[in-house]
Amino acid sequence: MNLSSPTKDDYMGLYSIMFWTLTLIGVVKYVGIALNADDHGEGGTFAMYSLLCRHADIGILPSKKVYLEEEPLLRNQSAAARRPSWLGKFFERSITARRALLFMSILGMCMLIGDGILTPAISVLSAIQGLRGPFPSVRNSVVEALSAVILIGLFLLQKYGTSKVSFLFSPIMAAWTFTTPIIGLYSIVHYYPGIFKAISPHYIVRFFLRNKKEGWRMLGGTVLCITGAEAMFADLGHFSKKGIQIAFLSSIYPSLVLTYAGQTAYLINNVNDFSDGFYKFVPRPVYWPMFIIATLAAIVASQSLISATFSVIKQSVVLDYFPRVKVVHTSQHKEGEVYSPETNYILMVLCVSVVLGFGAGNAIGNAFGVVVIMVMLITTVMLTLVMIIIWRTPPVLVALYFVPFVVMEGSYVSAVFTKIPEGGWLPFAVSIILAMVMFGWYYGRQRKTEYEIANKVTVERLGELLAKPEVQRVPGLCFFYSNIQDGLTPIVGHYIKNMSSLHAVTVFVTLRYLLVAKVDERERVLVARLGPDGVYGCTVQYGYADSLSGGDLTAQVTGSLRRHFGTAEAGAEEAARLEAARTNGVVHVRGKMRFYVGEDAGWFDKVMLGFYEFLHGICRSALPALGTPLQQRVEIGMLYKV
Length: 642
What we know:
There is one protein chain. The protein is of the alpha/beta class. Mean pLDDT is 83; it is low at 62-79. α1 (8-31) packs antiparallel against α12, α2 packs parallel to α16 and α16 packs antiparallel against α17 (395-416). The chain folds into 2 domains: 8-442, Amino acid/polyamine transporter I, CATH 1.20.1740; 455-641, no CATH class. β5 and β6 form a beta hairpin. It is elongated, with a radius of gyration of 28 Å. The chain has a 6-stranded mixed β-sheet, sandwiched between helices. Helices cover 60% and strands 10% of the residues. Residues 475-641 form the K+ potassium transporter C-terminal domain. One of its GO terms (molecular function) is potassium ion transmembrane transporter activity. This is Potassium transporter. Belongs to the HAK/KUP transporter (TC 2.A.72.3) family. Its main location: membrane.
């Protein structure tokens, strides 16, 4: 609270702001609109970007573009529904607009990761500060140390998966959701029964007329009332849309409205207690039970942001916009429940550093406010694009959505930007670092794809190489991984020339990441003969919510090949050759390229490709991500000259 001497009217205006923020952003925007912009059950900014890319040719990387006539999940749409809208055509024509859209998606993801750092820190720290109510002598350093211990324990439990402890979440959140509004009702009756007069928007107008610039600056604090809304959308893969809508409308929303009303009623009668409004409005007889419930609820809230961070990292890795990190599926039944060890421990270090570095001051709250509203503004813009490009919403309805929310969230953004020197710089620093990593990776992958397309090995060229007398066909089954759709990677020619051999049965596998959440099993594996005996092409298609394992992949590909051979005599011979090759041993060959940046290359290429080489060197290999056995992996190196 920046007001030097707050009054009853100030608190009434602040409650009115929080009520309408919760109602418009929480209920109307997220529950009513955003949850419908899912991509096959997945939510968040990258899911919306995926959705947009599937309905218009606006992807950036050539290997990641989705062409509507090839996309199996869109074949049944009518011609009118598949035809790009005027805005879709604009994005298709403008590379600048497509890059801006990609950058917006990246920034939204980076800000959500920043939320994953700050939410556990501020939630646990705020809850543990309740110790200082009954024991004012407890120092801030003790509160910070205890908060750090709780956070470390929470992150160490992540490897077991949320399903192992999720049975505790419902009773904890139920206790929090139903006890805080009861206390709120008690405060309303005891301190100020007329608090709900503040629902009238004229209290907001009077608040700003009275406080002017100071009132505008205070928006940076009131935005915290809607924290968690974006995580609710990003966590859509963990829960059903209907379940989230019912839970929010029936319990969370009324609980927050009553709790904030109770706190405001208390503050109207205790105008100088704004520094710790929650614990001071809790009656003494129930103080310790509420302290325990608040601490447990803070841990559950932290878990939701950590899980959302794992989800968006997995989406980005699978879509090849982020360096490969290990992603583990921790549930047999929930595909969206994932865990990333590297991400987990980096988040743990950053969260603990925030707690110990920022402490109990206002700086951590300022940083939190910047993250919350920036992600929401990005979601508003992307939802508008979804309305125009995909839903074909009438312009009047689009304007009725876009204008109010941009004005509201834009006002919040302008207010929280004043907090950047006071701690708000932290999420920007984290987001800039992450955006640099993502852009460096994206640029390197783009240049790699361009080189491979320009120097690909055609099927005709493959036949010429295999026809040479010095090239031998050795026993065994080889899965040779290629990155490009039309043709083979240059490493194939490099391998045959230098090894003078190729396995008796060789399957050139292209892993095609579609910009969808899940691919139908019938469309998963596509096989075809490539001309030379025993040489086949295979495209394995899957989305960012699918998972592949090495054993299953081998079985799926060989099964598809047997079905492709048919029951004719020639097919039986090919099936027998495949089985014999599999008996002789299976090997998975992957090319490991490096860029050779010549002296004539520009400084931008030298810097960006050097950074990409660094990222490529420290990230995980693609084959371990597929779960292929270690003894079956072979890597072939090649220099790509730029």
